[in-house]
Specification:
about 40% helix, 9 helices, globular, ten-stranded mixed β-sheet, Spore Coat Polysaccharide Biosynthesis Protein SpsA, Chain A, single chain, 2 domains
């Protein structure tokens, strides 16, 4: 059985479409685990209400406080493993997908003999503008998405093994968690999935498959207010520094720090105001102390 783990945080707006997508899946052998991170809206109650209308089993775990996405995922993963799920699907709830999305992901993962698998992701209601179509790590600048922002004209239609993917819709064998471990909760949000994939693929040698026949649409930045919000600027920059200090060699940390300094001189000046630049500097200092 597959345990589908999602973290709720003021997610009421997107839950109906997410539930409709799950209900439409041709694969039915799964159980939904929702971890509510102390939402201030009616996300938890809506989850329960929608669950009664659907044919699949659902479990709601209420958190007393918001411990972050990484902690929420860990709570859901442990619950799924305790119920003997042999695979866990880590899923955002700000996505929609066609009925063959999960089946294609399972088939492609097995065909490529991988322990982890992700599909192709478009920007929500963009037609066919790519958000993720395979990915890789760059020591100096972090992870990258292939064909990011491009219009899909078939350039990313070949299934293959990749070294990086976000966990917005990632199928993972239970064996991966047993060896690699859980998400690092110090991240709170952002880079926690990057850290997990780095450890699983780059350190522990698990195979991560990109399956382009498994397609979804993703509402980017729904919960965080976008990448230039104060929330995002803090955690993206803090956690980027923490990630490289935790996982990189001295040489690669130096390369990444040099790239960061150059980007601060050029890109940050262009796209950020003074208040935002100060916030970024403070976030990076915070990351160096973690």
């Amino acid at each position: 059985m597959i345990g589908i783990v999602t973290v709720l945080y003021n997610s009421a707006e997107v839950l109906p479409a997410f539930f409709a997508s799950l209900s439409a899946q041709s694969v039915k052998d799964f159980r939904r685990y929702a971890v509510d991170n102390a939402s201030s809206d009616d996300s938890a109650d809506l989850f329960l209400s929608l669950s009664k209308e659907r044919e699949f089993s659902s479990v709601l775990i209420r958190q007393q406080e918001n411990g972050g996405v990484a902690q929420g995922n860990n709570v859901g993963i442990r619950a799924a493993l305790a119920d003997r799920c042999d695979q866990v699907l880590l899923s955002n709830n700000d996505i929609v997908m066609p009925s063959d999305c999960l089946a294609s992901l399972i088939e492609g993962k097995d065909r490529l003999q991988a322990q982890m698998a992700v599909g192709k992701a478009y920007y929500y209601h963009s037609g066919n503008r790519l958000w993720y179509a395979g990915g890789y790590f760059r020591y100096w600048a972090g992870p990258a998405h292939r064909y990011y922002g491009e219009v899909d004209h078939g350039q990313a239609d070949t299934a293959c093994l990749v070294t990086y993917a976000p966990t917005c819709f990632m199928l993972v064998d239970a064996s991966v968690f047993k060896k690699t471990g859980m998400m690092d909760e110090r991240y709170f949000v952002y880079w926690d999935d990057t850290d997990f994939v780095w450890r699983a693929v780059m350190q522990d040698g698990f195979r991560l498959a990109y399956i382009p026949s498994s397609v979804l649409e993703h509402r980017i930045g729904f919960s965080s207010g976008g990448e230039l919000s104060a929330f995002s600027l803090r955690y993206l920059n803090r956690n980027r520094v923490y990630f490289r200090r935790k996982n990189y060699s001295w040489f690669h940390r130096c390369c990444a720090a040099a790239y960061e300094g150059l980007s601060s001189l050029i890109l940050d000046v262009i796209r950020l105001n003074r208040q935002q630049r100060n916030l970024v500097r403070q976030a990076r200092k915070e990351g160096r102390k973690m």
